[in-house]
Amino acid sequence: MGFLTLNDIHHTYFTKTSATPALRNINIDIKEGEFVSFLGPSGCGKTTLLSIIAGLIQPARGCAMLDGKNTGKTDSGIGYMLQQDYLFPWKTIEENILIGPKINGTLNHAIKTETLALLDKMELRNVLTSYPKQLSGGMRQRVALVRTLATNPKLLLLDEPFSALDYQTKLKLENLVSSTFKTFNKTAILVTHDIGEAIAMSNRVLLFSQRPGKIHKIFDVPENLRLLSPFEARHHPAYNELFQVIWKELESLEPEE
Ligand SMILES: Nc1ncnc2c1ncn2[C@@H]1O[C@H](COP(=O)(O)OP(=O)(O)OP(=O)(O)O)[C@@H](O)[C@H]1O
């Protein structure tokens, strides 16, 4: 069994008049410290699967087990980061990043020091007393990431966290996130539409089929790419090779016009 095990997950959304099958037969083991990306056509169920892993949606069948516990039944220590930063506009950056430990009742001197060090690592100095509206989009996403990491989650779910950023900021943030996750050996799942980002950030890329989403193929990212930063990885021949393979596979999934 993996650190995170997705066990025969199926899900269908029901309304009064319709049923939308979203996911079928999702089975996968993810190791501790692994970075996995979910890639696939729009509407194939990637966010639904993240919500099931987070315990926010009860799947119609199957379950997600993290460290031996069903994520839908326990407070499983999962951090969730989205495209929007959802910082509290009326709180300072310091208050925002420490809110998780404060709510959990775990805030102490050591956690505060570690969290502030993380803010430093994210190249955000001198913003502690600022408010979110005074920061750029890229800075706010980094603050959101520090806030997510402050609770020391066992697993991080990242739902297109870089997609609203300009290209340069996105590349910079990918580098920062990747080095932070490697340093702290964090297990993470990234939902993205960017094949390059998936390859440059991950150990494995899971390609989903059209809805109802199934795991269509799993691509292992060569070990030598993982030793590089995402920016460096994008210039490696192995990156281009894998990009072509995934691109062709993704194209074969698109519906005929
Ligand atoms: N609450 C809901 N009620 C009914 N249908 C839903 C609901 N949420 C999602 N769906 C449908 O389930 C399918 C999967 O949605 P989901 O958001 O998981 O896909 P996705 O792969 O994340 O899409 P995208 O890449 O466009 O963000 C879609 O057809 C969507 O319209």
UniProtKB/TrEMBL annotation:
Annotated InterPro entries: AAA+_ATPase (IPR003593), ABC_transporter-like_ATP-bd (IPR003439), ABC_transporter-like_CS (IPR017871), ABC_transporter_ATP-bind (IPR050166), P-loop_NTPase (IPR027417)
Pfam families: ABC_tran
Keywords recorded for this protein, A-Z: ATP-binding, Nucleotide-binding, Transport
Segments forming domain ABC transporter: 4-231
GO MF terms held by the record: ATP binding; ATP hydrolysis activity
CDD domains associated with the record: ABC_NrtD_SsuB_transporters
PANTHER family in the cross-refs: ABC TRANSPORTER ATP-BINDING PROTEIN, TAURINE IMPORT ATP-BINDING PROTEIN-RELATED
Name of this protein: ABC transporter ATP-binding protein
